[in-house]
Amino acid sequence: MASFTGDEVQTSIPQVDRLTYQSVDCRTAMNELVSLSLRDGIAVITISNPPVNALSPGVPEGIRSTVESAANDPAVSAIVVTGAGRTFIAGADIREFAKVVSGEKPRRSLLPLLLEIEDCPKPVVMAIHGTAFGGGLEVAMAGHYRVLAASAQVGQPEVKLGIIPGAAGTQRLPRLAGVAKAVEMCAFGDPIGAREAHALEIADAIIEGDLLTGAIAFAREVAAKPCPKTRERQKKLRDTDPSIFAKARQRAEKTRRGQTAPLAAIEAVEAATRLPFDAGCAHEAELFDRCLYSTQSKALIHAFFAERAVSRIPGVPQETPVYEIRRAAVIGAGTMGGGITMNYANASIPVIVKEAGQEALDRGMAVIRRNYASSVKKGKLAQAEMDHRLSLITPQLTYDGFEQADIIAEAVFEGMALKKQVFAEIDRIAKPGCILASNTSYLDIDEIASATRRPQLVVGHHYFSPANVMRLLEIVRGRDTDKEVLATSMALAKRMNKVGVLAGNARGFIGNRMLTPYLREAQFLVEEGASVEDVNGALYDFGIAMGPLAMSDLAGLDVGWRARREFRHLEKPGVRVPLVADQLCEQGRFGQKTGRGWSKYDENRQPSPDPETAALIEQTARKAGIERRSIGREEIVDRCVFALVNEGAHLLGEGIALRAADIDVVYLNGYGFPAWRGGPMFYADTVGLKTVLARIEEFRERHGGDLWLPAPLLRRLSESGSSFGEFDRQKQAAAGV
Ligand code: 3H9
């Protein structure tokens, strides 16, 4: 047998006590991570590394030693490998990658272990429930047979972490599932369900009822049969259509713009069709290493953990009791209210949606129906599920039934007077203990709460448009908001399949407050001589889903116009403000919805340069005495992105955002910042805070101090050679979360 050299890993895996093992009927050998027991001649190997049975140090060694013991035991006729708890194996331990990249630990290959499993002379049956992801599926494919619980999922999601399968996944999967499906799974990372896995021959059987019982019965059936080795299968590799790879590359260029791992994954699967297994594995390893050491993979791994860290709030422990949300009510059936209503229905929560007039209510419900129907058409939702979700929604013009709601979500027009009026009304109707949530995107949540007698139950739930699609939910903590309300909001976000991020009560909270200087710089750049297309194009090429001016056109220029009017009194005299957006609005150019804004839009909402806007910009700039010059892409990106970073650092310093990682999660999930850059704060760390600060100082010198005042935290971290990542680590350690 090939040997697995997990040498420096100190584990407590005892060798199976042969005497005890052979002397009792229900024989069990245990260690902390992997255990072996015998059930009537079938060895059962159980991996137990909560929460997701990742292949952390000790697990591969445990599998190896238990497989070896079972293989050598004459009382064993076949082996079942299974996972304890909620899942099979969710993959390699992602935390270990950083240690490998930093040189703290050497990279250990799983390949020798997988060969040992595959070369085992007794049939090895992998019994899969929950998820067999990444290294988990790679382990599974090294077994001779795979049986799946009907609810199980399998996948190679490594590309979502900026890497590719690194333990022969790109070599074994095409041999089992066929090349086209292997390319898709390895390059795009989405999992498949048990039925599809069965149809593709990744799974040999689906077990209804108890998985382990079924797997043992299956093992008994195959005990006397040969042990088919995945690596020796050739049938599905033959006559591969070469256009599969070209098409996948095209798709990756389009849907994974800027990312290197999907292309590497395609190359690795392609290698499986050209090279013998061993050479294919060597090629995969080379590509894996290249990806692992890339900044993209560090960024995506940061994003993975950041998304999971946001729910940890100092002072709100995980065991904080939550309010039960059984019924909801939403005020407003407009763009946001409609999306929010869908979020409740999607989470199986019955919801009333109230509008002031029948026409608006009908329009809102028609949009909701259209959105669901479009998901059904795309095959993303079953018709029955659409019907069920619609049945949970009660549209109406009155407050009837509001007294039974556990949460009331307000989504009326942005304006303090109106919000306060609505909150005073719902406070009168709502039952005691009902949470009142405002979807305000800028306004002071404490002032809104002051219109009620229950400020402790008032919270901001700021969704992002389209609210039924965007994953971000900013949860805004008012001065008096109870911790139970925050814990409930976080849990609700999860139920809605969203990521909740806590924000303090500052104008625009996290996301929109940072957006203000970002959009300001985009507008200044066009006033100074860049074209609208230059600005949009530079940030699009940087990786942002949509350039800043294109995004403003999509959101509607009137939205910012309204907000500016609300806050005009806060503008400091003598400080430069963008001059063109208000004029566009005065001319009725609100962006996409009116066909004209920063750009012109055709009936399919395709943009083209608008000479009238260009003339307006030029004329306005000349009148204001702004010097026009040619501006490079680097300056465009630095001015917009470092404006985000500096504002983010202000927010961190002020405690409005808890962690730099929270800001990253906001920008990745709410504003189309490219995940492979990790978010604005992670990106700043990769550039180096000294460089970022120097650039900000340069802009300050050129454009005046008020707008480019470096955040004190940025200066402090830069001067001490630190980073936002380090700031987060120290803060988290101090808070003990
Ligand atoms: C790989 O396998 C490379 C291979 O080719 C081998 C190369 C040699 N490692 O998401 P949750 C933690 S790459 C370490 O909230 P859920 C997670 O941080 C890997 N930790 O639960 C969280 O910790 P905490 C390929 C992990 O039920 C806790 O577990 N595999 C890992 O919503 C619960 O996670 C993947 O990319 C891990 N692999 O979802 C799968 N996975 O409580 C990544 C999770 O401290 N994982 N944690 O915040 C997932 O997609 C989801 O976690 C999963 C469960 C669907 C499994």
Architecture overview:
Helix content is 48%, strand content 11%. The chain is of the alpha/beta class and 737 residues long. The chain has an eight-stranded mixed β-sheet with strand order 13-12-11-14-15-16-17-18, with helices on both faces. A seven-stranded mixed β-sheet has the order 1-2-3-4-5-7-10, with helices on both faces. Helix 14 links the parallel strand 11 and strand 12 (351-354). Helix 10 (243-255) runs antiparallel to helix 11 and helix 14 (335-346) packs across helix 15. Bound molecules: (S)-3-Hydroxyhexanoyl-CoA (3H9). (S)-3-Hydroxyhexanoyl-CoA binds at residues 51-52, 54, 90-95, 110, 131, 133-135, 138, 157-158, 161, 165-167, 169, 308. (S)-3-Hydroxyhexanoyl-CoA is lined by residues 51-52, 54, 90-95, 110, 131, 133-135, 138, 157-158, 161, 165-167, 169, 308.
